[in-house]
Specification:
Subcellular location: Cytoplasm
Strand content: 15-25%
Keywords: Amino-acid biosynthesis, Aminotransferase, Arginine biosynthesis, Cytoplasm, Pyridoxal phosphate, Transferase
Bound molecules: pyridoxal-5'-phosphate
Helix content: 25-40%
CATH class of the largest domain: Alpha Beta
CATH superfamily of the largest domain: Type I PLP-dependent aspartate aminotransferase-like (Major domain)
Oligomer: single chain
Number of helices: 12
Cofactor: pyridoxal 5'-phosphate
Shape: globular
EC number: 2.6.1.11
Order of helices and strands: EEEHHHEHEHHEHEHEEEHHEEHEEEH
CATH architecture of the largest domain: 3-Layer(aba) Sandwich
Pathway: Amino-acid biosynthesis; L-arginine biosynthesis; N(2)-acetyl-L-ornithine from L-glutamate: step 4/4
Length: 389
């Protein structure tokens, strides 16, 4: 189908922080398959886990206990402070599980159409419920009717939600990204999540965090909410970096939210499959044993510092921002051409929200590669003439 447009690059191999095209050209990958291959390509620990599991047992369904699933669930629960896990095959499905938990709470409370508060600029996926939760008309146009039960407010605006709380008595949850990824690497005020937590406590709502892009070490913590001390969500979703390229998603829940799915109320044929869970376990263990969270934090601050200094005074640059290895450069106009310009220099980057250069390199980057990304991107951005030049 035509949904991915006209693709002009054919990648055939990857190793570490590099990928190669069908003509044998090498590219430094500053995108990691959109925040998926955080350990770089074909990481030996993940490859070994996949090989071993493929030789042992690929699939049995969720009618039986699955040791790899249980081990990964225990690991995620220990790392997150949550109580239990539902496994899916993708990010959108993990968010569907979160939305269904909120609906169950609302149904239990007798609300005809329980409401979930979502934000402008959010990205939550492409299924019907998650594209409704997404705050970007481009994702929604042509797919009416959308799903009922979502209320939208500006991102980083607690007062707007307090206002909703006064107007509606059937709200059950807030669903929000700790940093908006697709929306343009938008980082909220430091007190945003803590204030949302307090509001959810006060109103008896679930705080549901979409960490599909921000978890798995991307921001320098296993989960981005861990930048805020002992703050815990009621529900948190992860996917992208969890399998380093093997499709897997997870919806983690705590307290009341952890009890709402009863036998038969939700499921997935492939979710929690032994292959995906073995890969996920290898990813989590590698992130921990190689100190990659600390490394992501250091690399991220180096990358941000170099970009800021090289782009200082650049008229077309509106902002340079980031958290760990989730870095964005906001320009004063659309800049999709930069993707091709970087590619011509052997560097893969991305532009999101039209005018934000997005860098999501592997956490396994060397210092040299980190400097190389900053140097190349800063030069390309500097040469991208300002709007009114
Ligand atoms: C990518 C992403 C999703 C959707 O994940 P899929 O695996 O593509 O379904 C949802 N939320 C956020 C924040 C994402 O970055």
């Amino acid at each position: 189908m035509q949904n991915y447009g006209n693709r002009t690059l054919t990648l055939v191999r990857g190793e570490g922080n590099y990928v190669w095209d069908d003509a044998g050209r090498r590219y430094l990958d500053a995108l990691s398959g959109v925040a998926v291959c955080g350990l770089g390509h074909c990481h030996p620990a993940v490859t070994e886990a996949i090989e071993q599991q493929a030789n042992t047992l690929l699939h049995t369904s969720n009618l039986y206990n699955l040791p790899p699933q249980e081990k990964l669930a225990e690991k995620l629960v220990a790392l997150s402070g949550m109580d239990n896990v539902f496994f899916s095959n993708s990010g959108a499905e993990a968010n569907e599980a979160a939305i269904k938990l909120a609906r169950r709470l609302g149904n239990e409370r007798g609300f005809a159409v329980p409401k979930i508060v979502v934000t402008e600029g959010a990205f939550h996926g492409r299924t019907l419920a998650t594209l409704t939760a997404t705050g970007n008309p481009k994702v929604q146009i042509g797919f009416a009717p959308l799903t009922e039960g979502f209320l939208r407010v500006p991102y980083n605006d607690v007062a707007a939600i307090e206002k909703l709380a006064a107007e509606h008595n059937d709200i059950v949850a807030i669903l929000v990204e700790p940093v908006q990824g697709e929306g343009g690497i938008r980082i909220p005020d430091a007190d945003y999540l803590p204030r949302l937590r307090a509001l959810c406590d006060q109103q008896d709502w679930f705080l549901m965090l979409d960490e599909i892009q921000t978890a798995n070490g991307r921001t320098g913590k296993m989960f981005a909410y861990q930048h805020f001390g002992d703050l815990l969500p009621d529900v948190v979703t992860t996917a992208k970096g969890l399998g380093n390229g093997v499709p897997i998603g997870a919806c983690l829940a705590r307290g009341k939210a952890a009890e709402l799915f009863t036998a038969g109320s939700h499921g997935s044929t492939f979710g929690g499959n032994p292959l995906a869970c073995s890969a996920g376990l290898a990813v989590m263990e590698t992130l921990e044993s190689h100190w990659l969270l600390e490394r992501a934090e250091k690399l991220g601050s180096d990358l941000l510092a170099q970009l800021k200094s090289e782009l200082e005074g650049c008229a077309q640059v509106k902002d340079v921002r980031g958290l760990g290895l989730l870095v964005g450069i906001e320009l004063d106009r659309p800049c999709a051409e930069l993707v091709d310009q970087a590619r011509a220099e052997g560097l893969l980057i991305n532009v999101t929200a039209g005018n934000v250069v997005r860098l999501l390199p592997p956490l396994t980057l060397t210092d040299d590669e980190c400097r190389q990304i900053a140097t190349t991107v800063a030069r390309l951005v500097r040469n991208f003439a300002p709007q009114d030049a």
